[in-house]
Amino acid sequence: MANFNKVILAGNLTRDPELRYTPKGMAIAKITLAINRRWRDPATNEDREEVTFVDVDAFGKQAEVIAQYMKKGRPFLVEGRLKYDTWDDKQSGQKRSKLHVVLEAFSFIDSRVEGGDSGGGAPPDASRNKPAAAPAPAAPASAAAPEPAPTAAEPPSEDDVPF
Questions:
Q1: Helical H segments across 7-147, by residue range
Q2: What does the radius of gyration of the chain's CA atoms come to, in whole angstroms?
Q3: 81-90 confidence digits (pLDDT tens)
Q4: CA-CA distance, 105 to 84, in Å (whole number)?
Q5: Distance CA 18, CA 38 (A)
Q6: How many domains does the chain have?
Q7: 0.90 exceeded by the pTM?
């Protein structure tokens, strides 16, 4: 039986990216996406909505690019894999666990620039379907799928993570 672990999500950042570095210099960016689902309830004929919050970890150069250009509220497309972490809570001594996404590729969804020339948002060339590797000219709007980013660096061991 084959295994497959791939996640593609599009949502809005709930906060500015949190960028830190391991003692060995590996960049780690933590972001949270809010993903809205809207539907009509057939029983009541009312419009309904639910929000799912997903934590995403990015590593290396991708983490630095995300921290540089992304801000709270901006739409963002993420490709990655699910990762399940378990640990013992130092304060309560209880077992804790968390399912999150490890980013492998991403795309900026919008091209809005906030705050004029003050550098508050993404640069004018950070537009739809832009490759994730580094700021570069935008891909044509007719592109069917985001361009893949270079393979992300392998995440550091848990002892190296400064969170």
A1: 60-69
A2: 18
A3: 999 999 998 8
A4: 19
A5: 29
A6: 1
A7: no
